[in-house]
Amino acid sequence: LGQTFQVTSQEATKLTLAFSRPPLPSAEDCQKLSEDVQKAILAVATVYYWLPKGQGTTLRKVVRDATAEVVEGMIQLTDTILNAPAESLSQEQLISTGGVWEACEQVSNLPRDNQAAVVSALAACLGVVKDAVEEMEHALVEGQDPYGDIMEDEELGFRGNRDTYWSEADRQLLSSCMGLMKASKACLKKVLAAVKAHGKADSPEQIAQLDDLADIANEISPSVDELALSMYPPVNPLAVRLNAAKLASVLKKVLEIAKTSHVCPPSEEGWVQFLTGAVDHNMNKVKNFTQGQL
């Protein structure tokens, strides 16, 4: 893959130099240039298709995305050359060439096996969830107006409106939701550490278990976002309860899959049990606060 990316990068340079100043290449030279570009791109795609699915769907997706970026970069460069005035090297052409080089250089950072690919996927999920938790914590600061950054306008009227503030009952419910969001962050942190410490990609079973973990962990961030959105005023307690239940269900699945996989030897079982309890505890509190709404 590294070799095919390197050849593609060189072909992009040749192509852009050929069209950087007059005289333009002859029809024969254009034919040769386009054949070389096509060969390079076909080689990139072929090597991607050679990667066995058994090496892990998470790894395969990362490699596929990197490959697609190289192909798209080359398409963009070709389009730019076709549409550029022939006299000189355009700014767009330089940017497009740089884009192909950058996409091709990515190969050195690609994970080498499914364990590394899953570590990278979990770390990305954790980053997104951390941001969501911080944003919600910031909004929930005592006395703060969650819409304080939105200017008043004539249509909305004065923002003394109940719809823009949390009542005391809302805040009690939301503190349990924050507990669930924090459990999501802790869950991803612990699973990531366990995959780093114990994750292996030596057997089909281990590879499949890692993929299962990555797949279910990918559901955490959208579930956290949905819960966070429903927490803004005016609060509909039933919508909050539904989104909290969805997130709790995803977290329980993550913990269950981790517990039964090779990344969770007996030394890791303590935190799995603790986090399962934390999810149940916060979900029960959400249920209690919303019971009267049913």
Task: Break the fold down into its secondary structure elements and pairings.
Layout: H1 2-18, H2 27-50, H3 57-83, H4 91-105, H5 114-139, H6 168-198, H7 204-217, H8 220-230, H9 237-259, H10 269-290
Helix pairs in contact: 1-2, 1-3, 1-4, 2-3, 3-4, 3-5, 5-6, 5-7, 5-8, 6-9, 6-10, 7-9, 8-9, 9-10
Domain Cyclin-D1-binding protein 1-like C-terminal: 152-256
Main location: cytoplasm
Pfam families: GCIP_C (PF20936), GCIP_N (PF13324)
Features of the shown structure:
294 residues, mainly alpha, A middle domain of Talin 1, 2 domains, elongated, GCIP_C, GCIP-like, nucleus, CCDB1 protein, cytoplasm
Would you kindly provide a written description of the structure presented here, covering whatever features stand out?
Keywords: Cell cycle, Cytoplasm, Nucleus. Residues 152-256 form the Cyclin-D1-binding protein 1-like C-terminal domain. It is found in: Cytoplasm; Nucleus. The longest helix is centred in the middle third of the chain and has 31 residues, at 168-198. The chain has helices at 2-18, 27-50, 57-83, 91-105, 114-139, 168-198, 204-217, 220-230, 237-259, 269-290. The protein is built from ten helices and no strands. The protein is an all-alpha fold. Helix 8 packs antiparallel against helix 9 (237-259). It has two domains: 1-109, A middle domain of Talin 1; 114-146 and 156-290, Up-down Bundle (I/LWEQ domain), CATH 1.20.1410.10.
